[in-house]
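Dear colleague,

Following up on Tuesday's group meeting, I ran the structure prediction for the two-component complex that the binding team flagged. I've pasted the input sequences exactly as they went in, so you can double-check that nothing got truncated or mislabelled along the way. The structure tokens for the whole assembly follow below. Feel free to forward this to whoever is handling the docking comparison.

Inputs:
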Amino acid sequence: MEKLTFEYPASQPVKQRAHVGVVGSGDLEVLLESSPDQNAHVTVTTSVDGFGTTWKLVLDRFFSRYQGAAAIEINDFGATPGVVALRLEQAVERSQV
Amino acid sequence: MSGMQTTPQNGAGVGQQLFDPSAFLARQSLTELNGRDRAQALLDTGTYRELLGPFDRLESPWLTMQGVVPQSDDGLIVARGEIGGKSSAILSIEGQFQGGSTGEVAGAKIAATLDLARADTEKGNPIQVVLLLETGGVRLQEANLGLEAIAEINSSLIALRRYVPVVGVIAGMVGCFGGMSITASLCSYLVMTRAGRLGLNGPEVIEEQSGIEEFDSKDRQLVWAVMGGEQRSATGFADYLVEDDVTAIKNCIVDAFARGLPLQHRSELVEENLHRLSAIDGSRQLTSGEVRELLSKGERL
């Protein structure tokens, strides 16, 4: 198990918190809520060690389009980058309803 | 067995008529939903309200210490709302998280909900509690705390079922095993699908402990013939055998609560069960047909 943290600049407030996904095989849960400051913060707890660079690439791409000042907590159980990206999109979608 | 059995919506006329896919396609599967969506689907529309949800972050303090990723709700969804217009609580176990295992936090959430439902019921505000059981039993990483949790759940359930029925649902695909199978058996009424399985020991555990000649866990036909929903309902361990369909399962739940308390709970029929056990020849493995014949004699289990 490994814990990773990331920070990104942000410009939009988060409308409402959102929770998606399950900590099941090949899946992850995402908790998205308003950040305490003007930046976005991501905390990843993952069952698979040594993929810090991949996480950074997936999150870099996600935050190149998403501007929310969000505190995102991820509990990952071996999701592929594609699944991670989809769950993040889903959490954003739910937070904008 | 006094339990109602719903007939399958399709497949009944196999051999006589062509398979009609419309009924199958119209079904909304419960087993394809995760724990949270199951609770939402079974409560009356618009009444769902979650207690101690993910953002309360009541996760297991023990898993991280052992290098296991926790889940923010510890894999147990407590949902309040209405079923058939009556005040209800659904306790839904997330089978995908750690095999639906019951740890300290998940167990405490179940036991506390049962206790609060009893307190409300005693005050004249009855609460219908439904357990969605998808679990391998005690969470091994939490050992004694998990065992204690099951003891608390069971005593809380017995205290509640003196006033109102408690309904268990084993839809699948995990099934219900270990300590939680005792909880299932304490329920006033049990609803199962064909995919659901109920057993004190899971197939792999039996094979591991007693050898492949005793039980081949890879033999799906054998596994379901012993512990599958169809066999369990035919032998009186479950009251409803139902298709994997949200509406059909909900109808069973509503029907079960409408029946009120059973004259005697299944777990109270000690003499009958001992008598039945004494008639079983343990020197060889019985076929599912023989078990059905033996157990269908006499009163409901």
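Chain A has one domain: 2-95.

Cheers,
M.
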